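Could someone model fe (ii) ion with this protein?
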Amino acid sequence: MSSAKSHFDQPRLNELFDDLNATLKDFIRSHQVTYKEFHQALAFLGEVGEKGETPLLFDVFLESTVDLVNNSERGGTATAVEGPFYLPGMPELKSPCVVPHRANEPGDVLFFSGTVRATDGKALPGAMVDFWQADAEGAYSHFNIPQEKAPFNLRARVKADDHGRFEIQTWVPSSYEIPKGGPTGALLKALGRHAWRPAHLHALVQHPGCEDLMTQIFLQGDQWIDSDVVGAVKESLVAGMQKHEDAAEISKRGLKGPFYTLEFDFVLPRGMQKAA
Ligand SMILES: [Fe+2]
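Reply:
Sure, complex below.
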């Protein structure tokens, strides 16, 4: 309990523990939990710990509720959960920019752009947009794609321009399944539920004098948009891409085929300054 000691004061710890314990006892009584089920639960939690899936289990079933409880009143762009695939130390680029990618990066090019503003409407020059996403096959660099094959693929820290504008050339992400090989995946399968997340872009947006914004932009029309396994989708974070097929537009961008654009403005509440 050493980590708990450092994060909770004793009255708060007692309040939380007593209520959690009482809730679980009520649950056992109301469902008449059997000894067999009790031991199955213990074995499951033991396996979750052994396989290092505690963060995954909590991400899937609980984090979106923690996000709602803590952020629903804050104003500005809605927040969304961070998820497990953020990486510190991403390359710093200035807008407009192209994110690190492979020579044969699969899928369609996407220009993701917008303005970073404060809730008072003022643009935030030089705002930092930490950006990361899955590729067109649903894979994250350094996690699903070995780091040495594609360092920081489709990841960057992008500095907005003097007007708070950013434009990031990237590739359209795919929906993906959360890791299914361990106990979390086995639980989803036993429940008869899928493991899919709708296609999305992750962003952590920061500017001195404003509160950090951790969010995700979800691609409109994705087949999993109404049943995200993590439950992170918020209506205001769903955005539509526009397809561009005009030859002159394609050539102006220096591309070889059709591309997509997605415009989304980030709005940060004024508040406590945090390190950018
Ligand atoms: Fe993700």
